[in-house]
Amino acid sequence: MKNFSSSIKGLFSSQRPRKSPYSRIISLFAVGAFLRLLSKIPLPFIDYSLLPLSNRPCFLALGILPIVQASLLVQVFNSIKPKTDEDDFDKYQKIQKQIKIVSTIISVIISINQVRTLAPVMSSYTFISKSMLGVSLIVGGLVLIWISDWISETFSISGSVVALTFTSVIDDVIRLISEASNFNFNLKLIFTLYIIAVAAFTTFISKSTIEFPILSSKQSYSEQSKTSLLPFAINPGAVMALVSAESLVRISQLGFSKISFLSFNPLISSLGISILRFFLIVIFSYYCSKLQVDSDKVAKELITMNMTILRKSPGQETQSYLEDELKKTYLSAGLLLGLLVLFSDLVDSYYPALSLKANLSSLLILFGTMLDLEDRLFDLGIGKSG
């Protein structure tokens, strides 16, 4: 919504800006190759012979979770504090600064926990070695955050999702396909149908929009004027809700395992985790999506351009109407995503060899990134006017 004014003007114009997608996609894949290189750099003082090939931490071991969690925390904090008449640009700059500070703090906290987790496989467990390992993890996390921000600004796509795709999702998908090649015919059929279902779901939730019919003040006096449609994605937060929920669920599982009652009742523990995951996905879907769209700014620009949303009640404020409608939309998208995760849990319980639940987020991110590249780099996802 940064270029909202130009987007509105584009609704009334038949001309579309020409782009050179090939040079942009080559540059993006060059960045991806660089990320792949960074993801292969080993951490110091780790005896990798003690670790399986599928679980070997690297320089970028922290991933994008620090910036995702920081974005959510800052968004929640700014949504509950009193609103001010601060300039939009200053407000945006302030929020970005807060996200970077909180990301750094979270990176430090996660790094300390990672050092403790990796203690059994460290070749040296002195204060200096632990400090160097922790610093390496923190630096890797901050480098990934910087690259993610740069991708977002340069290519107008989700830098976090792209970074996650090149650093871990590709490896997860390759490993999943390799494992699937050893399945029997029935499991291969179920696996194929599941992949098709996930691809269809991702396409639906990425392409679907909620549209608001709008008219300018001059058009409203003309009965022959056609309304234009102002589109909003139903899930601008992409799959960050799932990524955030999974990170908190893993922490919760550690806490559940220490409760004697739950440790002796794996069925109750599993049910509790599934319910917790479902509600976290729905809640995070709202906040991750809200983070991408500033309804206050959109409402102000509509008023500045003398545009009116036709569906809202005459006495209702534009901002209030947009917030209510977008909230319902984002929560509905989270509900759909949560149901898909529950379905994956169900299939996983009957066919554990498929490991569907463990790889769902990677599949969603992969398909989502491909669709995002199509929309943004090749300019194929432009909203249509009515």
Automatic annotation (TrEMBL):
<protein>
    <submittedName>
        <fullName>SecY-type transporter protein</fullName>
    </submittedName>
</protein>
<feature type="transmembrane region" description="Helical">
    <location>
        <begin position="189"/>
        <end position="206"/>
    </location>
</feature>
<feature type="transmembrane region" description="Helical">
    <location>
        <begin position="267"/>
        <end position="287"/>
    </location>
</feature>
<dbReference type="InterPro" id="IPR023201">
    <property type="entry name" value="SecY_dom_sf"/>
</dbReference>
<dbReference type="InterPro" id="IPR002208">
    <property type="entry name" value="SecY/SEC61-alpha"/>
</dbReference>
<keyword id="KW-0812">Transmembrane</keyword>
<dbReference type="GO" id="GO:0015031">
    <property type="term" value="P:protein transport"/>
</dbReference>
<dbReference type="Pfam" id="PF00344">
    <property type="entry name" value="SecY"/>
</dbReference>
<feature type="transmembrane region" description="Helical">
    <location>
        <begin position="59"/>
        <end position="80"/>
    </location>
</feature>
<keyword id="KW-1133">Transmembrane helix</keyword>
<feature type="transmembrane region" description="Helical">
    <location>
        <begin position="101"/>
        <end position="119"/>
    </location>
</feature>
<feature type="transmembrane region" description="Helical">
    <location>
        <begin position="125"/>
        <end position="147"/>
    </location>
</feature>
<feature type="transmembrane region" description="Helical">
    <location>
        <begin position="21"/>
        <end position="39"/>
    </location>
</feature>
<keyword id="KW-0934">Plastid</keyword>
<dbReference type="GO" id="GO:0016020">
    <property type="term" value="C:membrane"/>
</dbReference>
<keyword id="KW-0472">Membrane</keyword>
